[in-house]
Fold this sequence. Notes:
- α4 packs antiparallel against α5.
- This protein is α+β, with helices and mostly antiparallel strands.
- The N terminus is likely disordered.
- The longest helix is centred in the N-terminal third of the chain and has 27 residues.
- The chain is elongated.
Amino acid sequence: MTVQDNYMPVFNDGMSDLADEQAAFEAFHADFYTWSSDPARVQQDLDGLGYRTIAKRTIVAAVIPVVAVPFLFLGDLAMGLSILTMLISGIAFLICLGTDEGTRPARAKTPKKAIRTFINALKNKQYNRALALTIPDGRVVDMPTRPQLKKAHLGDYVPPRISDVESLKRYSNGFLTSGAGYTRYTNITKIKEHYVDPEKTVVDLELEVEITSTPVWVYFTVFLLIGILGLLVAQKKEKITTHKRLILGANGRWYLCNPAWNGPFDLAPDAKLDH
C-alpha cells in the first residue's frame, strides 16, 4: 500500500479522525521528501511523463521557416506565400517559446510561482508539465469535482479518476481549457499564503481565479466582420486600358498576336479605336 492509499486531504470528508489524518499526511510528506531528494528519481519521473525542455510544437514552429526557405526562389507567388508562412510560424515560435518558459517545472521556486506555472501548463494544454508539478503519490484522484460557473457551461463529462496525462486532459477540457462551445482565458487574480509549519515547508494557498469564457461563435462573427471590413479597406481599384490584336485562324479560333500585355502588332495603349 502506497502513501497515496492512506492519504486524504483536509478538504475531503473521508477521514474524521484528525490524528490519523495528520499521521497520514506526515507519512505522505516524508515519502515525498525522500523522493525529491534524489535527482535521479526526479529526472526519471520527468522522463516518464515525456517532459522536454522545449515542447514538440515549439520545435515544429522553429522548423517550418527553415523548410519554407527554398520556396523563396520559386517565383513571386511562392515567395509571397513563403514569407507569409515564415512570418506566421516565426510568431508562433516566439509564442510557444514563451509558453515553454512559463510552464517549466524548474520555475516552481516559490509557492506562488509553482501554482501559476501549474495553471499555465493546464491552460496551455501541457498536461505532462502540470503533472510534473504534482507529487507522484498524489496524482491519483478518484471522483474529481470541478467548480460550477454561473455564466458559462463547463461541459458535462468529468472523468471518474485523474491518474495520468490523458485523464487530466479530459478533466481540464472545457474547464481551464477551451471546450463545450467556449474559449477560456484563466488568470489568477489573488493568492493568499498560509504556512502550515514553522519551517515553512508546507503551505496552503487560497486562490482567486478569473475565468473568462467567450462563445466560439463570437470569434467567427468578429473575424468575419473584420475580414470583410479589411477586404473593403485594403482593396485598391483602378482602371487601365490596352489593346490586343487577334487573328482568326482557318480552324475558326481566334489567336492573339503576342502574349504580352501590349506587344508587336498591337495598337498603342493610348490609341483610340474608330467606331
